[in-house]
Amino acid sequence: MLGRIREDIRVVFERDPAARTVWEVLTCYPGLKAVWAHRLSHWLWRHGFKWLGRLLSQIARWFTLIEIHPGAKIGRRLFIDHGAGVVIGETAEIGDDVTLYQGVTLGGISWAKGKRHPTLGNNVVVGSGAQVLGPFVVGDGARVGSNAVVVKPVPPGATVVGIPARAVQEPRPPSEKLLIMAKKMGFDAYGLSQDMPDPVADAIGAMLDHIHELDDRIMELGKFLHRLDARMPDLELKKLELPDFGSEGSEREPRARVRGQNQP
What we know:
This protein is α/β, with parallel strands linked by helices. Helix content is 35%, strand content 12%.
């Protein structure tokens, strides 16, 4: 028992940078008190003292603003941050190392008996205000965005957002082609990594990929035409350079002239 208590306190320090001292955690974290009260109420519920278990859960709710039905099954190291408004239904199941923020509901959508609440796998994070409704599984390592309404299973490792919640695609690392084209154009590949998502950079990246494909096709076409007729030059593209829009002074000379135009 003491080992579990120490483990619960350590989890608070690991997941909340605002935690400073053990005394502060013991006295000022309602999520911790709600989890400890649930362990006792769940033991009473499993051993046939259902009314007493339910009464204890209601008392804990009055003090913590967190409602956990004594029938819910909760794994180790659950962390409920802030906690106000959290509701966990009777047949809900929660794995190990799960994090719930304020306003989360693990609820049901049916009045039928039996399994009607969700099952959360290990290492799941549910953002504030999210509603997870129904007897389905949220896979290990999944992330539920704030205020999302989840009504169907979530694959392991997925991130879901919106109403109804949908999986969002994780940003992909830039391809080798994209990096080569960015270097060719003199484009600083800002925002082309998973650590720096940027919609403008994503759009530029898509254009660079497209330009790279066009370059390859044009060069292949030039070589094919050269094989058909030796008079056709073997096309070789020059290095692209970005205009120096920031320079001051005289107007830049055009890079190319229309064929047939008189030279000065």
